[in-house]
Amino acid sequence: MMNPIDTIAQQFAAHNYKLTSQREAIVKVLLDNEKDHLSVEEVYMLVKGSFPQLGLATVYRTLELLCELHIVEKMNFGDGVSRYDLRSEGHDHMHHHMICQSCGKVAEIKEDWLEELEKRLEKEYGFAVTDHRLDFKGNYRICKGSGCKREKDGQAIS
C-alpha cells in the first residue's frame, strides 16, 4: 500500500500540479491532525514552524486546491469557521460526523450508512449519487468535553 503523501503527489501530478515542499508540509499537518478538522489559521500556525516565510494566502490557496482535487473537504460545523477534512482513501464518499452542540466535539463515523438509500435513489428516481455528506447535530448524554460551551456560559451541563 502506498503512503498517503505518495498517493496525494500522484493526484497532484494527474492534474498537472506539483506537490511542492510547502504544499507537502500543509498536507502533512492535515494528516497529523486528521481528527481535529483544522481551520486555515490552525493549519497556518502549525506549518509556520517548518516554513516561517509561508504566508496565510498560500495556505488558503493550497487548501482550496486540495478541495478542487477532492483530497480534502471544506466543512462548516455551525461555528462559522471553515474547516478542512481529509477524504478517506478508498472511500467513494465523505465520512459522516456527530457534532455535540454543547461542547462542539466532532466525532467521525467511518462506515457508509447511506449505501441502501443511494441504491434506492438510483432505482426509483434514476438519480446516481456521486457523493454525500451527513452531519448529525445533537448532544451527548454526558458531555465530557473540557471547556464545554455551556460551562463557559455559566450554565450547568445536563
* Mean pLDDT level: 79
Strands of the biggest beta sheet: in what spatial order? Answer: 1-3-2
Major β-sheet annotation = 3 strands, antiparallel
**What structural class results from the helix and strand content?**
alpha+beta
Secondary structure elements and their pairing?
Elements: H1 4-14, H2 21-32, E1 38-39, H3 40-48, H4 56-68, E2 72-76, E3 82-86, E4 96-100, E5 106-109, H5 115-125, E6 135-138, H6 149-152
Parallel strand pairs: 4-6
Antiparallel strand pairs: 1-3, 2-3, 4-5
Helix pairs in contact: 2-3, 3-4
What do these coordinates show?
This is Transcriptional repressor. Fe cation binds at residues 91, 115, 132. Zn(2+) binds at residues 100, 103, 143. With 158 residues, the chain is α+β, with helices and mostly antiparallel strands. The protein folds into two domains: 1-90, Orthogonal Bundle (Arc Repressor Mutant, subunit A); 92-145, 2-Layer Sandwich (Dna Ligase, domain 1). The chain has helices at 4-14, 21-32, 40-48, 56-68, 115-125, 149-152, and strands at 38-39, 72-76, 82-86, 96-100, 106-109, 135-138. Strands 1-3-2 form a three-stranded antiparallel beta sheet. Strand 2 (72-76) and strand 3 form a beta hairpin. The longest helix has 13 residues, at 56-68.
Features of this protein?
158 residues; alpha+beta; Arc Repressor Mutant, subunit A; Dna Ligase, domain 1; 2 domains; 3-stranded antiparallel beta sheet; 3-stranded mixed beta sheet; 6 helices; globular
Characterize this entry briefly.
With 158 residues, this protein is of the alpha+beta class. The chain has helices spanning 4-14, 21-32, 40-48, 56-68, 115-125, 149-152, and strands at residues 38-39, 72-76, 82-86, 96-100, 106-109, 135-138. Helix content is 38%, strand content 16%.
